[in-house]
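**Discrete fold encoding**
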Amino acid sequence: MNIKGARTMIIKEDQDTVIFIEQHEHALISGQLVNKWQDAFFNGSQWRTSVEYAITNHDRSWIPLDRKFLFLEKETIPASFTDYPLKMKMDAYEIGIEQLVKEDAYAGFLLSCHYASFFNEKNDIKSSSFIKQQEERQESLLKQMFSQDKALTSETRQFHFDLLQLCDNLSLYLCMNHWGVDKENELSWFKDGFPQQLNTLNNKKFYSSWESETVVKLDPFPFESNQLHISIPYKRLAKKEIGKVSLKETYRNTPYDYHPVMLKK
């Protein structure tokens, strides 16, 4: 692997152009989703502010890295976040967790759980060490939070963790898929629905589909109104403009476009 800097973009390409969506912008969309979540479907409302803060800021640690790019060896398009080197991911995750813990202990706890879950099925030494470190952090934070005058049961914690991962996945669904794609050609991650099932919605599995380039149907629909409008910030560059030396400046000088998406029942 030949690394020429680093970037954690969501990247999707067609024949002549590449769309870049910054990770923190995707996370802000996750925050919009949880902000409009119906109170009736929210478990542990005393902790809602912290949960919303965790979901909105779950990729904030990538902001400094968004000033650089990563090219894998012999590739002409920068690597997306899915191809990011493991050690660099872990370093960024640790920074993000530490930041949130200082600002909101429970938000930091949820982010620690979120990042640790990425490595549950890995058996390498680095992954095991990261998981152990996060488990120790979570235990310490739980002791701190149990001293507060708010109820925080294991069921409530599980709901908040699942909600974070669901909002993350819903936003990734909106950002990573080619807008308007038919079900057969969707990103494989979410083609058969989302893995998170929430007890406040009878553990019903969430399914989504594109009805057009700007309309997505979601079932069940847990938001305050029958429609939820999202605007996705992105930059589109022609492939011929993407050079390893000039990309940073070209990207900086390219204005954002905004793709509207309406979520509906």
About this structure: The chain has a mean pLDDT of 88. The CA atoms of residues 3 and 71 lie 6 Å apart. The chain has one domain: 10-264.
